Every structure is written in C-alpha cells, then in structure tokens.
C-alpha cells in the first residue's frame, strides 16, 4: 500500500471535480428524496399487508 501513490490519485480526482450548479444539485436532491419516499412507501405497504395477514392485534 503506497500512501504517496494513493494521495496523488485523490488529489487528481479533486482537481477534476467541480462544484455543481444549483439546478443540478436541486435535481439530484429531488431524485434522491423521491427514492427515499418510494422505499419508505414500499416498506409501509409490506408492513400493512403483513399486519392484516397475521390478524393484527
């Protein structure tokens, strides 16, 4: 494991990276939020189905 080599790779990537514009950031945030809501909805639906299949409380 060559630390000097790895650091140069990290520095090269950071130099190539750029700060996203507001529109790009906003779009990524909306897509990520929709994904979180979708996963939560699927989990909730599975919970409700299992609740009724097991007879509830």
Molecular structure report:
- There is one protein chain.
- This protein is an all-alpha fold and 57 residues long.
- The protein has a domain at 21-57.
- The protein contains two helices and no strands.
- The protein has helices spanning 3-16, 22-53.
- The longest helix is centred in the middle third of the chain and has 32 residues, at 22-53.
- The protein is elongated.
- The model has no long low-confidence stretch (mean pLDDT 90).
Please tag this protein with its features.
57 residues, mainly alpha, elongated
Number of discrete helical segments: 2
As a whole number of angstroms, the C-alpha radius of gyration is: 22 Å
Mean pLDDT: 90
H/E series: HH
Task: Provide the helix percentage.
Answer: over 70%
Question: Can you tell me the residue ranges where pLDDT is under 50 for at least 5 consecutive residues?
Answer: none
Strand count: 0
> What share of residues are in beta strands?
under 5%
Structural class: mainly alpha
Describe the largest sheet.
none
Shape: elongated
Could you give the distance between the termini? 57 Å
Give the helix/strand layout:
Layout: H1 3-16, H2 22-53
Condensed summary:
With 57 residues, this protein is mainly alpha-helical. The chain has helices at residues 3-16, 22-53. The longest helix is centred in the middle third of the chain and has 32 residues, at 22-53.
